[in-house]
Amino acid sequence: MRGVKVFSGTSHPALTEAICQRLGTTPTPCDLGHFANGEIRVQVGVSVRNDDVFIVQSGSSRINDSVMEMLIMINACKGGSAKSITAVLPYFPYSRQSKKKAHRGAITAKMVANLMSVAGVSHVITVDLHSSQMQGFFGKPVDNLHAEPLIARWIKTNVKHWSHAVVVSKNVGGTKRVTSLADRLNVQFAIVSTERERRRPPGQPVNMADSTVFFDAVEPASLRTFERSNSTDSDRSNDADTEADSAPSPRLKLQANGGASRPKAVTISSDPQISSTPPSAEGPNDSDEDLLGAGVNRAETFPSARRPSEYEAADSLNDQKARDVIIGRLIQGHVVDDDHPSPALSAQYGADRNSDGNDHDPMTSSFISTTSSLQADHALGGTLDAAASSDEEEDGIKNPDLQHTVTLVGNVKDRTVIIMDDIIDKTGSWIAAAETCVKRGQAKMVYCIAIHALFDDESLAELEACECIDYVVVTNTFPMASERAKSSRKLIVIDLSNLLSEAIRRNHHGGTQPSLEPYLDKF
């Protein structure tokens, strides 16, 4: 193409060669090197005046050098009076740091976007941003291409009986991506959720009295359900022994027709010394009489993922959908049997995080301060209204002293499972999801598919050693050593040079990127 210059950084020269081959051109000469002190040196070898410049630079194992090299190349082309400068980033650096995950965290992806804008970039082309909201970080146009059409085409071509497969999300955060692929293939989907058992340390107050905002942060003994009965004035005069005999023992009082009555009110107690004994065994209590009135039946319940107002009737336990929920135990990153001994620290809440030995600070006794002091597995930014992202789920999943509960929602029995996510880096959650589908869900074959393969030396070897994983399918947005790819018997790499080359061609000729998807069927 005339008037186009395609530059290649040092991060992924093989991908740049494939892109230029499809465009019918060659990479533009550019001298890239380092000074003796490690500083990066860039010298553009040809004139770029009034040309459309495309700089292909992806992430790499030396991510900081790749970012600085790209910024210097952008600024050098800007100084050379280029007509436009487009940064082609198959994998956007620091994309997983697109939001604050702690009070003093940094939004590093936004900082990288600002640096690119200051350097002089006029357009950005990338593939499957970790968070689609990152497109707003730039003051310039951003084309966020999607590899999903190519992945769906590969599945239809290479996976046997793909029409009966199930697309599985290995965490709750990737549900939207999984459902999109399932809709494209017109197949079912499932979700795997992994979380550590959490309990409050003895003697530490919660200090969230009469609060339902932080419902899930309290221990079972602190949650009490009160039911107001329609007792008459004569019933209130009964003695404590009569009330003890008539008090119901189950957690939910059943009605005559077999259904469960819904709780009328919910109160969360903040007293760590509160007894779990029903009031019928303790005798009458004047404070309870003043607060709730006489003739009150108290039933203890345990917190769950639903609010008390959403409790269903007892008949709903016979629902067919309940059979598609499978729960297992996860220890040191692997699914174990129910009779496997529990780790020593699994019953201690935050034992692996609160190991500094600091005493309880009375200044954090406020329920807001207590909640804000929770770690990232509870919230982003210190509040309980947002769950932690999937990037931190690997932390502690292989800790031999902790036990996790893994839940599979969906039917994968005797089916092919396709575990889908955008990034594959650490393998703990991938192996846990695969073992859950095979050992618990009785799936017959598992494909692990990711767009960005950020493998290290151990990750690919761990996936190779897992007997529950049959194939690992990734794209070439991130550079990978050819020796490593050839030595793996499970690894399959999908080439995205056709997608990126067509995006560059349409960008140069003024074509629209949304119409790119139908063109993929011709590749």
UniProtKB/TrEMBL annotation:
<dbReference type="InterPro" id="IPR029057">
    <property type="entry name" value="PRTase-like"/>
</dbReference>
<dbReference type="InterPro" id="IPR029099">
    <property type="entry name" value="Pribosyltran_N"/>
</dbReference>
<keyword id="KW-0460">Magnesium</keyword>
<dbReference type="GO" id="GO:0000287">
    <property type="term" value="F:magnesium ion binding"/>
</dbReference>
<keyword id="KW-0963">Cytoplasm</keyword>
<dbReference type="GO" id="GO:0009156">
    <property type="term" value="P:ribonucleoside monophosphate biosynthetic process"/>
</dbReference>
<dbReference type="GO" id="GO:0005524">
    <property type="term" value="F:ATP binding"/>
</dbReference>
<keyword id="KW-0418">Kinase</keyword>
<keyword id="KW-0067">ATP-binding</keyword>
<comment type="similarity">
    <text>Belongs to the ribose-phosphate pyrophosphokinase family.</text>
</comment>
<keyword id="KW-0545">Nucleotide biosynthesis</keyword>
<dbReference type="InterPro" id="IPR000836">
    <property type="entry name" value="PRTase_dom"/>
</dbReference>
<dbReference type="GO" id="GO:0006164">
    <property type="term" value="P:purine nucleotide biosynthetic process"/>
</dbReference>
<feature type="region of interest" description="Disordered">
    <location>
        <begin position="224"/>
        <end position="292"/>
    </location>
</feature>
<dbReference type="Pfam" id="PF14572">
    <property type="entry name" value="Pribosyl_synth"/>
</dbReference>
<feature type="domain" description="Ribose-phosphate pyrophosphokinase N-terminal">
    <location>
        <begin position="4"/>
        <end position="120"/>
    </location>
</feature>
<feature type="compositionally biased region" description="Polar residues">
    <location>
        <begin position="267"/>
        <end position="279"/>
    </location>
</feature>
<keyword id="KW-0479">Metal-binding</keyword>
<keyword id="KW-0808">Transferase</keyword>
<comment type="pathway">
    <text>Metabolic intermediate biosynthesis; 5-phospho-alpha-D-ribose 1-diphosphate biosynthesis; 5-phospho-alpha-D-ribose 1-diphosphate from D-ribose 5-phosphate (route I): step 1/1.</text>
</comment>
<dbReference type="GO" id="GO:0002189">
    <property type="term" value="C:ribose phosphate diphosphokinase complex"/>
</dbReference>
<feature type="region of interest" description="Disordered">
    <location>
        <begin position="334"/>
        <end position="367"/>
    </location>
</feature>
<keyword id="KW-0547">Nucleotide-binding</keyword>
<dbReference type="InterPro" id="IPR005946">
    <property type="entry name" value="Rib-P_diPkinase"/>
</dbReference>
<dbReference type="GO" id="GO:0006015">
    <property type="term" value="P:5-phosphoribose 1-diphosphate biosynthetic process"/>
</dbReference>
<dbReference type="Pfam" id="PF13793">
    <property type="entry name" value="Pribosyltran_N"/>
</dbReference>
<dbReference type="GO" id="GO:0005737">
    <property type="term" value="C:cytoplasm"/>
</dbReference>
<dbReference type="GO" id="GO:0004749">
    <property type="term" value="F:ribose phosphate diphosphokinase activity"/>
</dbReference>
<dbReference type="InterPro" id="IPR000842">
    <property type="entry name" value="PRib_PP_synth_CS"/>
</dbReference>
<protein>
    <recommendedName>
        <fullName>Ribose-phosphate pyrophosphokinase 1</fullName>
        <ecNumber>2.7.6.1</ecNumber>
    </recommendedName>
</protein>
<dbReference type="GO" id="GO:0016301">
    <property type="term" value="F:kinase activity"/>
</dbReference>
<keyword id="KW-0597">Phosphoprotein</keyword>
<feature type="compositionally biased region" description="Basic and acidic residues">
    <location>
        <begin position="353"/>
        <end position="362"/>
    </location>
</feature>
